[in-house]
Design a protein that fits this description.
Blueprint (H helix, E strand, L loop, with lengths): L8 H4 L6 E7 L8 E7 L19 H10 L19 E8 L16 E3 L11 E3 L10 H15 L3 E2 L6 E4 L4 E6 L2 E7 H14 L2 E3 L12 E4 L2 E5 L4 E2 L1
């Protein structure tokens, strides 16, 4: 963000969007993992632009598609369950940190101004113009959807027609589902190595231990607040 010289009312006809600190424990009482970030408080009633924003959220079937892809033989798609194979099928879970801040605001769209936090010396006298989407603004989820979709398409993925949050890479045979900032993917171990490396070039990410049939592969992971387990003859969640 950048600071204009004065308030934003003279450019937008309304005061800047208020902000607040959001503190969340993404862990638990025994293993706390606190996250604190500044978020906007833009309500639909406050937005006089008449713009409509839509960012699709995948149904649970999207995650089930990824898990089923690791277990199902369909045509030329044949998962490898040999624990000793370097090409064995695995499941990858990636979390993108501060996802919305990776999405740039279209310079041709109306400017978005937010208040400065009280800790800032210019609080009350100046405000900030957003250059990237901020959590709490109405267009943030739509902007992030456009950002990661464009990134995956540039890597050779094809976007789903019935569900735009599901992607498939025909050449590398990777099935991927994206829910917010969480990427769940299944494919051969080397291709998932490639995918995780490419995504890390664009965003700061956290990668869970890779699930799979190998003796050193993880047998349990978490996705969308669900526990996913790799068993000898099936995957369950």
């Amino acid at each position: 963000m950048k600071k204009p010289h004065n308030t934003a009312r003279y450019r937008t006809g309304r005061p800047p969007i208020s902000v607040r600190w959001d503190d969340v424990n993404k862990g638990d009482d025994f293993n706390p993992n606190y996250r604190s970030r500044l978020v906007a408080r833009e309500l639909k009633a406050m937005d006089k632009s008449n713009n409509n924003y839509f960012a699709p959220a995948p149904p649970l079937e999207a995650l089930r598609t990824v898990l089923s892809s690791a277990m199902t033989k369909i045509g030329q798609h044949v998962p490898i369950w040999d624990p000793a194979s370097k090409e064995r099928t695995q499941i990858s879970f990636i979390d993108v940190k501060r996802a919305y801040f990776n999405a740039k605001i279209d310079p041709e769209s109306p400017p978005v101004f937010v208040e400065l936090p009280q800790e800032d010396d210019d609080h009350g006298s100046k405000c900030a113009q957003l250059l990237r989407h901020m959590y709490g603004t109405r267009g943030a989820a739509d902007g992030w959807q456009e950002e990661y979709s464009t990134m995956l398409l540039s890597l050779g993925f094809t976007q789903g027609e019935s569900c735009p949050n599901v992607f498939w890479h025909k050449t590398k045979d990777i099935c991927c589902s994206v829910h917010g900032d969480d990427f769940a993917s299944s494919g051969a171990s080397p291709t998932l190595d490639w995918m995780e490396s490419e995504i890390s070039k664009h965003y700061e990410i956290t990668i869970q231990p890779r699930m799979g049939p190998g003796p050193n592969d993880a047998k349990e992971g978490r996705s969308l607040n669900r526990v996913v387990r790799w068993l000898e003859d099936r995957i369950e969640y």
